[in-house]
Amino acid sequence: AQSVSQHNHHVILSEAASLELGCNYSYGGTVNLFWYVQYPGQHLQLLLKYFSGDPLVKGIKGFEAEFIKSKFSFNLRKPSVQWSDTAEYFCAVRNTGNQFYFGTGTSLTVIP
Amino acid sequence: EAGVAQSPRYKIIEKRQSVAFWCNPISGHATLYWYQQILGQGPKLLIQFQNNGVVDDSQLPKDRFSAERLKGVDSTLKIQPAKLEDSAVYLCASSHRDYLGNEQFFGPGTRLTVL
Predict the structure, then answer these.
(1) B44/A105 touch (CB, cutoff 8 Å), yes or no
(2) Which of A40-54, A72-86, A95-109 has maximum average pLDDT?
(3) Which listed residue, A97, A100, B51, B93, has the most CB atoms within 10 A of its CB?
């Protein structure tokens, strides 16, 4: 069965600290990769996506992610977090059958 | 463009009662998804439609859950009878069909509490 693993369940950082959230998936075929964010009280929103080309993708609000095919990974990064980045972050994979699989999420708390 | 609409936003029922959720996807989106998101977990796909046909319902508890998308637009998800463990947020999402790199657009969800 296909799966998406997010290694960090809860992350607490101070403002201006750097962020890296891990995401690994298990699927041998072509995939599209996504990071979604869910701010408190809001619905899921797309942060960034990868479907082909440059494996380093940039998203909104200064986030970026790198697709490393050999490691089946798509880690999310941000050089300097802000209090407003406090949210739940979900990694998702879409396979060639247009099926989406989500990770269990990482809760990020940024302390001012 | 208008987003994915869902109703109701909140629902409280007692166990063994029935409940139905409604979703209206973004206009022109052929693919519609229903997810269950239990507190502290990621969304779990329940059922996926392509137009009015079911693509994947492997994780739908078919003894109590049902879903339909009769005209290939709106969809309803029903639970009958509900159990305590069905308490969750039920998310509807839609996407374009066969578009490489397509993303899902999510609705606000329906928060179900089963007492």
Answers:
(1) no
(2) A72-86
(3) B93
Strands A45-50 and A3-5: unpaired
Q: Do B109 and A43 touch (CB under 8 A)?
A: yes
Interchain contact, A102 vs B48, CB within 8 Å? no
Q: Among A30-34, B76-80, B97-101, which is the least confidently predicted range?
A: B97-101
* Whether residue A70 has pLDDT greater than 60: yes
Size of interface A-B (CB pairs under 8 A): 57
B48 vs A: CB within 8 A: yes
